[in-house]
Design a protein that fits this description.
Structural class: alpha+beta
CATH superfamily of the largest domain: nmb1532 protein domain like
Low-confidence stretches: 248-254
Radius of gyration: 24 Å
CATH class of the largest domain: Mainly Alpha
Order of helices and strands: HHHHHHHHHHHEEHEEHEEE
Largest sheet: 5 strands, antiparallel
Number of strands: 7
Length: 395
């Protein structure tokens, strides 16, 4: 009981410290006041601290305003924390290798572009640095879903995802400034400086907080499953690893793929046929059940929204950055209440024109059983004119 009491007292003091920092109190005074508890902080404490903040109603946006200052104060004890580093074959090993390469590129940018105020060099390096998005996409679609299933205090991952988006936005902003200016100026220097601050902060939060806790909480079997899913994505700054896995692979418990699997009034299909049909459709399909949990997604040839088996069973709210969760919940609430049966959006993404539709799925008694998301690349469809009939292909 004494250990629990002391731990609770420690977290409460860290909460008091962080609240003071968030509200703009004198930093030196706060550090002096809470120095003992700061010196003893561990990665687990940081996760719990941020989780408590969010559950107390402090939004990710507010946390982000002071997170870099707070984490810098925690740097020394976290840097000194002893943990077993990942070995080759573990996903975290490659995340850290990517970070090493990223730091090398950042140093090159400082030396070759910033110090020399060479905007042409900066433009060249920005093309390379954008590969960091592959690193973040893997975290969001593989690492985060696994950690959400294992951690009761996973809400800090929402803040990290939000910071990913901040970095993405800042990269776009730097691109825009480079296009608008032929040489370095005050605004470019300021924006690049802010970018460096954010991205070094992300490396720090990964390697001194999230990765140490993950190494001590994720079982070996899950790391192997995770690594298999990671290989379905691109890597940043390093070659995609070639890994031989143990013979223990997830077995298909559905039996013979050619056995009858799906039978309705309009026909019948075996599992193999059904899966091939769904994956042959030129659309992304994702189904969320009545409890807001992801139950299925299709695997079309050209999927534009990344999905991995890790998201099965994941709350759909956790599949989106914090800034867009309220929109997702508004759509789901309107479906559950019966106010709406569908919703649609369209957007430009990587030179593609994407049409996204959401449909409320109801049973024969009009009870809500889930939501179907259907995404389609309509780039070529939107260019169609006139007609092309089936008979035209026989000419």
């Amino acid at each position: 009981m004494e250990i629990i009491k002391n731990h609770e007292e420690k977290i409460n003091k860290l909460l008091e410290f962080s609240k003071g920092m968030i509200s703009g109190e004198d930093g030196k005074f706060l550090v002096d006041k809470y120095q003992k508890v700061i010196d003893e902080i561990t990665p687990f404490d940081v996760i719990e601290l941020e989780d408590r903040q969010i559950k107390m109603g402090i939004t990710p946006a507010i946390i982000k305003n002071s997170i870099e200052k707070i984490m810098n104060i925690f740097y020394t004890p976290l840097e000194n924390y002893n943990w077993e580093k990942p070995e080759e074959g573990n996903p975290l090993y490659y995340y850290m290798k990517e970070n090493d390469k990223l730091k090398e590129i950042l140093e090159e940018i400082k030396k070759e572009a910033i110090m020399k105020q060479d905007i042409t060099k900066l433009k060249e390096y920005m093309v390379k640095i954008k590969e960091i998005n592959n690193h973040y996409i893997r975290k969001e679609n593989v690492l985060f879903p696994y950690l959400e299933k294992l951690w009761t205090n996973y809400t800090p991952l929402k803040v990290m995802w939000s910071l990913h988006d901040d970095i993405r936005k800042m990269l776009k902003n730097i691109d825009k400034l480079i296009e608008q200016n032929s040489s370095f100026n005050v605004e470019i220097n300021k924006t690049v400086g802010e970018f460096f601050f954010l991205i070094y902060g992300m490396i720090f939060k990964e390697e001194l907080v999230v990765f140490p806790v993950a190494m001590q909480t994720v079982p070996e079997k899950s790391w192997q499953e995770m690594m298999k899913e990671e290989l379905g994505f691109e890597f940043s700054f390093i070659e995609k690893p070639i890994i031989k896995f143990d013979d223990e692979v997830k077995k298909d418990n559905m039996g013979n793929l050619k056995e009858l699997f799906f039978k309705v009034e309009t026909g019948e299909l075996n599992k193999n046929q059904l899966e091939l049909i769904l994956n042959s459709l030129p659309i992304d399909i994702t189904f969320i059940d009545e409890n807001d949990e992801v139950k299925y997604f299709s695997k079309p040839k050209d999927r534009f929204f990344p999905r991995t088996p890790a998201i099965i069973g994941r709350k759909v709210q956790n599949c989106h950055p914090p800034e867009s969760v309220n929109i997702v919940e508004r759509i789901l609430d309107s479906f559950k209440s019966g106010e709406k049966d569908s919703e649609k959006f369209w957007l430009k993404m990587r030179n593609k024109y994407i049409y996204i539709q959401y449909f409320a799925v109801r049973d024969d008694k009009n009870r809500y059983i889930g939501t179907l998301e259907v995404g389609q690349d309509i780039t070529e469809i939107s260019k169609l004119e006139g007609e092309k009939r089936l008979v035209d292909d026989t000419k």
